[in-house]
Amino acid sequence: MSSQTTAQYRMYLGARVLWPPDCPDDILEGAINETQSCLKTFEAKDGQKMAEHLKKYLDTNFEPFWHVFFGKNFGCHSIHEKRRFIYFYIDKTAYLFYKTQ
Known about the structure:
By secondary structure, this protein is of the alpha+beta class. The chain has helices at 25-41, 47-62; strands spanning 8-12, 15-19, 66-71, 85-90, 93-99. Belongs to the dynein light chain family.
């Protein structure tokens, strides 16, 4: 995305998703739903366990190798498989998932 392009977000399944998403609907829905489930299960201090759970979920359901990042302030530059990049917010926390070979 160039510095002149403004990111566009849309509400989808209760998350503010970078639009258009760069993944199939089933992966996007699974990632958002599983993240929302984790937020009900894990305490805030258990971020590493939540990240591990989300990675295992994505690897198991959508083939390895997924990378999981989330937080309120981070940057990332990565190379990922085509149509395997997910970026969304739930409340003020950003979630970034992408798949590599």
